[in-house]
Amino acid sequence: MDIKPLTGGLGAEIFGCDIRNEAEFDEIQNAFAKYSVVVLRGQHASPEDHLKFARCFGPINVNRFFKAVDGYPEIATVLKEKDQKTAVGEGWHTDHSYDQVPAMGSILNAREVPPYGGDTLFVSMGAAYEALSSTLKGFLDNLWAVHSSRHVFGSSTSNSEAAKSGRLGNAEAAVQDARHPVVISHPLSGRRGLFVNPVFTTHIEGLNAAESDALLSMLYEHCRQPEFQCRVRWEAGDITLWDNRATWHKAINDYHGYRRLMHRITVDGVALSA
Predict the structure, then answer these.
(1) Whose CB among 72, 117, 184, 215 lies 3.0–4.6 Å from 195's, allowing a Cys bridge?
(2) What is the mean pLDDT of the chain?
(3) Which sequence positions are flagged as catalytic?
C-alpha cells in the first residue's frame, strides 16, 4: 500500500489497496484520521463491496433526499446526465450538518466519469480555523450556529432541475433544524475546526441578521483560500472517503455534455461539542 499526500495540509491518495481485504482496513482508517480526505485508487468495487467497507466505519446513515441505487436503499445516486445543466452539490457544504448528530463522513464510488472535469474540491476546516487571529478565535469559540435542510431540499426547491429529473425528492421530509458550535473539537483527534458552511448554515445565534450574515460571509471567504484546499481528480473505480466533521467539499460542474455517475454511502457520526 502506497500513501501519497495530495497537499501539505489535506488529503491523500492510496495506491495498491483493496477495500475487500479486511486486513488493510486499519491502515486505511489511520490514513483517514490523519488526512481527512482519502482517495483509494482503482477499486472497481461492487455495491456489496462498497456497503461492507462502509460498515467497517459504522452504521449507514440513509440519505432522505437522494434517489437510491436500484436494489440498494442505503446507497445514494449522485448523477448528472449529459443533457442536464446542474450538478448536485455545486455549493461548498458539509453533508448532513442539518442533523442533530451529523454524519461522520461519506464514501463516494466513481461508477462513470466524464473524459475531463467533474473533480471534487475539499477544504480543511481545521487549517482554516488555525489561520484565524487569536482574537477572532476567542469570539467564535463561544458561538452557536443553526443549520437546516428546509431551504435546500424542501418544497421551495421542487422546481429545480434536480427535483424535476428525480435526482432529488422527498421534499416533505426536509424538516431538519440543528444547532452546533461554530467551532468544534473533532471527536477523534480533538483538533479545533470551524463547523459552518454556505449551503446548510442559516445564521449564528445571538447576532442580528446583518451581523450574522457579515460574519458568515467573512468566514466563508476565508475558508475558500487555496492554501486550505485539495482537489480530487476522479477515475472510474476510485473510492474517496472524507470526514464531514473536518472538511467542506463541492462538486465542479465543468463537464457539460457528458454523464457522471457516483454511488455515495454516508456513515453515522456522533454528537459534536465545542
Answers:
(1) 184
(2) 95
(3) 93, 95, 249, 264
